[in-house]
Here is the input.
Amino acid sequence: MSFTSAGSRWADVYLVAAGRGISICGELLAATTLALVLQSAGHGGFAVAGLLLAATLPIALLAPFSGRLADRADSRTLLVVIGVAQAAICAVLAFATHPVLIVALVAALAAGLSITQPTLAALVPRMVRPADFPKASGIVQSAGQIGMLAAPALAGVLIGQTGQRGPLLIGAVSYLSLVAIGLLLRTRRHGATEKDQQAAAPFRLWDDRTLTVMTIAVASVVAGVSAINVFDIFFVRETLGASTTVYGLVSASWSAGMLLGSPLGSRIPEHRRTVGTVLALLGAACLAVLIGGATAGSAWVLIPFWVAGGFFNGLLNVSTNVLIVSRVRPEAHGRAFSVYGASVQAAGIVGFFVAGPLVEFFDPRVLVAGAGAAGLLAALACVPLIRGEVRSQTRTAPATSMRDEIGDNVAS
Here is the structure.
């Protein structure tokens, strides 16, 4: 593990948390704004799916490169340079109107995100003592949920008042928070020495059975349920007849649930942080989607189900972060988070490919409920895979099964 030998630097933790919350708000503000603009302009499921695909595909494809870069380059340089570039791209998006140009610029934003995400994730373990990492992870995750909570509602309100330009310019300013983080943080990864790089180079995530099973389980469920990101805008806006403002509130309700769940994730007992717990949380979130999609008669009725799903999602995020950090050597943390994140993003791409055509032919309610059911079935299908691993986790400390390599190649 990569933890400080001195006392925990909580000022740095809160600084990263604030920056993460602001930058995620900007990212989601831009994505929600553009999705609403495309839908309101009469573009169908293919356009919205293409937008979401552009926001995820670069993260999956660039994982081998971005993970190495996060481990080998200076963290301050990465955050400052990428933050400035993303702010400029988002400012250009504010004036873009052609769907192809919008999709291309969103892909460029995602390419920057593929680098900043593992860079920030790898910094947090260096700020705190081992016993404090679950709490620190919960704080950072909670800040991200606050950003996610604010963005959809803010997008719905701003679009109604100013059109697309206002929220996108605000999003451009938010990306500069990464620059502030890079300049103000005392904790800094300077990149591994040549000796460390040679020792870590062959490290593969897939040689750790626990992390492999966890990644497969999460990716399998995400592949089943991710299409809801395309379906829900049509379900809420057209089937349930909600305004853009109400759509923003519904979207924010999932993040509200995550905000409630993330702090509690740090309180999960160590012996309960297993892939079995991860799978149970995944199934619970999908069940909330299934019931909400099948029964909601109005957008307001959907909100408590989305809050419940987000709650389990928040618990899940902290649990997976702790498992990764506890089992991976410090010089490979960037690649570990990059490979895991890319695997999940790649699984989501499967849903985006399927979602576009389905929106054109099926009722959005059926599609939303079906996405929840697909995720739940995927979770149940993974149960045989994790049975042996759950027994192993309850008997063995995480460090004893840590292997020497982390994957440079991902299926995503």
User: Anything to note?
Assistant: The CA atoms of residues 66 and 305 lie 36 Å apart. Confidence is low (pLDDT under 50) at residues 393-412. The two ends are 26 Å apart (CA to CA).
